[in-house]
């Protein structure tokens, strides 16, 4: 098992098996983000896609998601969409 010092969780944790995103950003995620934190991002990304009704074939939507991913993983968190109400338990 590969471990990394996760910048999101601020502790040692299990790392990813391979870069989850292309290019230098993917390599940075691979080196600095844990499997657990990546799963947290995927859940947040799904919420952003649903709440903002994003279409991933739209280059602007992909650009927005990449910016949010960088904020979430490396910038101290990302905002919830305006009017977001968490699902009832």
Structure description:
The longest helix is centred in the middle third of the chain and has 17 residues, at 35-51. Helix content is 48%, strand content 9%. It has a two-stranded antiparallel ribbon with strand order 1-2. The protein has one domain: Fe(II) trafficking protein YggX (YggX-like). By secondary structure, the chain is mostly helical. Helix 2 (35-51) crosses helix 3. The chain has helices spanning 23-32, 35-51, 59-74; strands at 3-6, 11-14. The termini are far apart. The model has no long low-confidence stretch (mean pLDDT 89). The chain contains three helices and two strands; from the N terminus they run ββααα.
Task: Please summarize what this structure is.
The chain has three helices and two strands. Helix 2 (35-51) crosses helix 3.
Set down the secondary structure blueprint.
Elements: E1 3-6, E2 11-14, H1 23-32, H2 35-51, H3 59-74
Antiparallel strand pairs: 1-2
Helix pairs in contact: 2-3
In round numbers, the mean pLDDT is: 89
- Gross morphology is globular
Strand arrangement within the widest β-sheet reads: 1-2
Per the CATH scheme, the topology name is YggX-like
Secondary-structure-derived class: mainly alpha
Order of helices and strands: EEHHH
In total, the number of domains comes to 1
Report the end-to-end length measured between terminal Cα atoms.
Answer: 33 Å
Number of strands: 2
Most strands sheet: 2 strands, antiparallel
Tell me the Rg in angstroms: 14 Å
Q: Any idea what the CATH superfamily is called?
A: Fe(II) trafficking protein YggX
| Share in β-strands | 5-15%
- CATH C-level category: Mainly Alpha
Q: In CATH terms, what is the architecture? A: Orthogonal Bundle
């Amino acid at each position: 098992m590969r471990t990394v010092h996760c910048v999101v969780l601020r502790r040692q944790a299990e790392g990813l098996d391979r870069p989850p995103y292309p290019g230098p950003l993917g390599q940075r995620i691979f080196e600095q983000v844990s499997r657990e934190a990546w799963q947290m991002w995927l859940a947040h990304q799904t919420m952003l896609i649903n709440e903002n009704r994003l279409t991933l074939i739209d280059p602007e939507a992909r650009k927005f998601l990449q910016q949010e991913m960088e904020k979430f993983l490396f910038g101290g968190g990302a905002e919830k969409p305006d009017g977001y109400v968490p699902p009832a338990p």
